[in-house]
Write a structure and sequence with these properties.
With about 325 residues, this protein is an alpha+beta fold. The chain is about 25% helix and about 30% strand.
């Protein structure tokens, strides 16, 4: 199976160093320290699509943004790139007034370039985006409502109320995503079940997916979501792979499952459409970005695309 985007990052997360205040203080002012920048949930990237260069993750020396950080910008220690400490930094302004940032690249939605930048850099960009989004959304205590402060190099937020001091940790919401299939039989070749939401681009179809609810296993969630959205019972539920998904901060857990019937009954809420497709038909789909295509496959940076393409290759190889 092809590699999963946003996974397999090359940074050494150096978790023990998050609690070493002396080391962090020195790393913070080190000439070797680098910053991965975020602004409005967008990553700083150089060599964008349409230019001659391949898109790359852009970094700037921490010295360039250190003053912004001391004035209240969110930051988090991401880890070590060799010996160089790497920090994620969220700018409240776009940095247009800082020549080093202006010259380094542009702030873009990671989904626009996530499939194009080198895999290890895509993982770093996703890591920074997810951590800083969590920081921004947990500035107040969920227990008492008091302000929280960042601790352990940005990996914990602690309530400032002396009567509370509750700690919050970076969250990851588990989501199951499943390729539901029917095997080849007398009625025809193997088929997969794809659905679409009204919010997707015209003609775009993807795998069924849904959040895991309290009190259920991942396999339970797969069976429930397939039943709720399409009225189909799923069996032979098998784990395939997982993907950190930084929009906002989810973990996509991929499965295959076998449908017990062909009959689709839409729930009328989640899906606009769901239908069966053979591998040969899916192979003719256009890409997500192809506005002229009648049907479009999932985004190239998604685990949905990896699972679907892998199944198509398997089935086409049997022909």
């Amino acid at each position: 199976m092809p590699a999963i985007r946003y996974a397999g990052g090359a940074l050494d997360r150096a978790a023990k160093l998050r609690e070493d205040d002396d080391w962090l203080s020195a790393a913070f002012v080190s000439d070797a320290a680098l910053a991965v920048l975020i602004h409005n949930d967008r990553n700083l990237v150089t060599g964008l699509v349409g230019r001659e260069d391949t898109p790359r993750a852009a970094t700037v020396p921490m010295a360039v943004v250190r003053e912004r950080i001391t004035n209240g910008a969110s930051w988090v220690f991401l880890g070590l790139d060799g010996e160089a400490p790497v920090f994620g930094v969220e700018l409240t302004g776009g940095g247009e007034d800082i020549p080093e940032i202006r010259d380094a690249g542009e702030f873009v939605d990671l989904r626009r370039v996530g499939a194009l930048v080198p895999a290890d850099e895509a993982a770093t960009l996703a890591y920074a985006r997810a951590m800083l989004a969590w920081q921004r959304r947990h500035r107040y205590c969920s227990v008492c409502g008091s302000p929280t402060e960042s601790q352990r190099a940005g990996h914990v937020r602690r309530c400032t109320s002396p009567a509370c001091h509750a700690e919050s940790f970076p969250r990851t919401d588990p989501v199951v995503i499943m390729l539901v299939t029917r095997p080849a039989d007398d009625s025809g070749p193997a088929r997969c079940l794809l659905g679409r939401h009204s919010r997707l681009p015209r003609g775009a179809y993807s795998l069924l997916a849904g959040f895991v609810e309290p009190g259920e296993s991942l396999e339970d969630a797969v069976a429930r979501e397939v039943w709720e959205e399409t009225g189909i019972r799923a069996r032979d539920i098998r784990y395939q792979a997982s993907q950190p998904w930084p929009f906002r901060y989810s973990m996509m857990v991929g499965f295959r499952a076998v449908a017990e019937s062909d009959d689709v009954v839409l729930d009328g809420e989640e899906l606009e459409d769901a239908r069966w497709f053979t591998a040969a038909v899916v192979a003719e789909f256009g890409d997500w970005e192809d506005d002229a295509a009648g049907f479009r496959r999932p985004r190239k940076d998604s685990i949905a695309r990896v699972l679907l393409d892998h199944w198509v290759e398997e089935e086409m190889g049997k022909a």
